[in-house]
Amino acid sequence: MSDPKIDGFELKPGFRGMASDTGSDQTMFKGVHWGKAMMWIFLLSDTFVFSCFLISYMKGRGSTPAEWPNPSEVFALDAFGVPVPLLLIALMTFVLITSSGTMALAVKYGYEKNRKMCGWLVLATAVGGLTFVGMQAYEWSKLIHEGVRPWENPFGAAQFGSFFFMITGFHGFHVSIGVIFLFIYAYKVFAGHYENGGKRGWFTTMKGDYVEIEILGLYWHFVDLVWVFIFAFFYLW
Amino acid sequence: MSDEYENKSGYQAQSSEALTGSAGSTPDMDYVRPAELPEQDLYHGHTFLTKWVFCQDAKVIGVQYFLTAVFTGIVGLILSWLMRLQLGFPGLAGFITAEHYYQFVTMHGMIMVVYFLTALFLGGFGNYLIPLMVGARDMVFPYVNMLSFWMFFVAVAILMASFFVPGGPTGAGWTLYPPQTILEGTPGSGMGILLMLVSLALFVIGFTMGGLNYMITVLQARTRGMTLMRMPLTVWGIFTATVLAMLAFPALLVSAIMMTLDKVIGTSFFMPTILKAGEVLEYGGGSPILFQHLFWFFGHPEVYIVALPAFGIVSDLISVHARKNIFGYRMMVWAIVGIGALSFFVWAHHMYVSGMNPWFGFFFATTTLIIAVPTAMKVYNWILTLWRGNIRINTVMLWCLGFIVTFVNGGITGIFLGNVSVDVPLSDTYFVVAHFHMVMGIAPVMVIMGAIYHWFPLITGRLLNETLGKWHFWATFLGAYSIYFPMHYLGFIGVPRRYYEMYDSPYMTSAVGMNEFISLAAFLVGAAQFILIFNIIKTLKTGKPAPKNPWKANSLEWHTSTQPPEHGNFGERLPVVHRWPYDFSVPGSKDDFIPQTTPPSEVVHTKVEKT
Predict the structure, then answer these.
(1) Which chain B residue lies closest to A32 (C-alpha atoms)?
(2) List of long-range contacts for B46-49, beta carbons under 8 Å, 24+ apart
């Protein structure tokens, strides 16, 4: 996006610009929508939540006396009778990253006021997210079937099950919330809530704007990025 | 003497103004660039429900937060009475069993730190003051702000409900250390701890919604001319505390989730292998130290979440009531920010006795002592603000002076405890209890009291009774010292904290009388707080109406269209800010204060610091 035009204020490049924006009145992030700034700060806070989870996982894995199971065996999937390590996970990751792509396109078409394309792409993202959650549910049920529980684990340390179900569950919860909102926003885009100056929400005076798609997009990309870390820490370590 | 001094600098000021700004009174001088954003649309409630209950006006939400927090605070106060009753006069009240005592300790700690102080400073003062002080019509997301309060309300309701479940509330100590917290034998290890964890999680979620509001309002919704370095220090304090909370509460949330799982479905995140009465429990392989790290990564910034708003508010109160600009404003701002940043690197000083590597302790002792530097800077600046000021010894000022004394006292004992070699023998004694009550109990409460006397006229339009206020202050101040000063001594002779009764231990020879004395003082201080409640009720009924801007302050909250401010805060037009809020006793000006909205052309003959 190009820089916004601010009446009576010169936007400068680089650190000089950062200093002059910070030192100015009214806003610190020039031309940034309140909701967008809010989402960034929320995501910073959420980063700390996931960091605490992952650091706890490292500590837990390091301090448990029992042996940690081998991820490429635990997470293998039988394809045509051959166990392929990380097959399901690769598919899940692919679907989720692809949905990030459709989300980015939805934001682009939203700003171009292309209602139809934006709506379909948000819907596609929602379907991608739903597929991810579905595959995760399959993976959970497979592990549960093999006897892995949050409190015990036939392959080794009980903490493996505890951390795996808790952290992927917490991430899956984030994805599910995102999917619900993606469906709601797909409906809102199709219903034209962001057209002609925007429709007012319920019990508030905020007006709809396509920037909301970008805000939702920020959340969605964050959830994907977190998945990359979970992927690395659980499946590759 | 001070008049002479002011006169002298006044002449100098005029001459320097004549040299540089003689072209002064042109309209150019008052130029403030136009508004970047359109006016905020507000949802005006019409029914009782939307106007007073599910209200989206930050001021009403602030008062709601305030009242709820004060209610929990009174519960915490009563619990402290019961504890002191047992400690001072063991066995006098038969209903206080050891289990009950531990439950009182736990709930008192958790209520006072999280549900009283944090909610009151950030939810109460933050909501009321931030939009007014930065010149906004309201918080940026009023609807989310409303949800934030109701989430807090539900959290408090669940916390209070834990008093009535079978087994009672948790009695594990406010730090909730596993494994004992969730094991049978600890009071409230059933429903009590569960409700506590659920309540904390809801508190974090509710606070996150509020905190996003406070941060974005400060960053993105200031009025024309309001730069960050023209904000009152109150806003700086609350803002920085909010940033800390947004980054520290996640650790609490995560530890609450993990402990809930340990409790409910039998995971072993924090639970090592445990032998109980010769039997091995189901748990095994977890790390109790992990919980301590998570808890204190939240717990230490939490201390500053409570302290920083107090620092900010007290700076403003001192400046207004000493009629002098705050000394070293920028230094004060950077000290707040610096303390906030450092507070994330000191958490393990709460864990010196957990068996950590000595080098680890060395690192955390160093960072802990470094925090004393910006903190001491702030204390010097408060004193230098008072220096040669036109001090008004009213109730507000008394609370501020009380704060400085108590805070310095608690800070100095903090230096003792920050050193590993001193902390280890003093750990878990009454010295620690005395230290943290002085520094983060009494000191912030003094500021809250000062702030109540200061802003009461703004919120209600009536001035609180000064005589009652002074009685309230002296009873609280002297009483609080009578409680906590002897406690240092109890700590030095080795009396351990959290003990239900000392029985015939050798400590008790010299500690018995002191414990009785402390208890009596505690009853008195607690009772003295009802003077304030009486004062408030009396003032609301028959108090004298406050004139507009009764303290002659500069910041925007006193320059609203009506007092108390209405929904939307500033009437037809938002204020335009031309200066910082500390232009008091400026040589050459006609009043001894220049409000933030006064344009430079009206004060060309005064010497105003460039801000």
Answers:
(1) B220
(2) none
**What pLDDT, in 10s, does the model give residues B83-108?**
999 999 988 888 999 999 999 999 99
Distance (Å) from the alpha carbon of A66 to chain B's nearest alpha carbon: 7
**Rg value, chain A, Cα:** 22
Q: Do A235 and A75 touch, CB atoms closer than 8 A?
A: yes
Say if CB B532 and CB B472 are below 8 A apart: yes
* Pairwise CA distance, residues B495 & B483, whole Å: 15
Residue carrying the six token digits 């009486």: B534
Instruction: Say what the pTM is.
Output: 0.93
Query: For the CA atoms of chain B, what is the radius of gyration?
Result: 25
**Cβ–Cβ < 8 Å for B127, B138:** no
How far apart, in whole angstroms, are the C-alpha atoms of residue B544 and residue B593? 24
> Which tokens belong to B558?
């006193």
Q: Which helix (H) or strand (E) holds A121?
A: helix A115-145
By C-alpha distance, the chain B residue nearest A41 is B212
Is residue B539 within 8 Å of B465, Cβ to Cβ?
A: yes
Structure tokens at B411: 């800070």
Cβ–Cβ gap A64/B285 under 8 Å: yes
The CA-based dihedral angle spanning residues B227, B229, B235, B239, taken in that order and rounded to the nearest 10 degrees: 90
Give residue-wise pLDDT tens across range A22-43.
Answer: 999 899 999 899 999 999 999 9
Task: State how far the Cα of B502 lies from the Cα of B467, in Å rounded to an integer.
Answer: 41
Domains and CATH numbers, chain A: 1-31 (no CATH), 35-236 (1.20.120.80)
CA B169 to chain centre: 25
| Beta carbons of B56 and A53 less than 8 Å apart | no
Residues 6+ apart with CB under 8 A from B598: B578, B579
Q: How many CA atoms lie within 13 A of B34 on its CB side?
A: 8
Which residue, chain included where needed, has tokens 């400085």? B404
Residue A34 forms contact with B (CB below 8 Å)? yes
- The rounded distance, in Å, linking the Cα atoms of B424 and B289 is 17
Q: Each residue of A169-209: pLDDT tens digit? A: 999 999 999 999 999 999 999 998 888 777 877 777 778 88
Q: Is A42 on the interface with B (CB under 8 A)?
A: yes
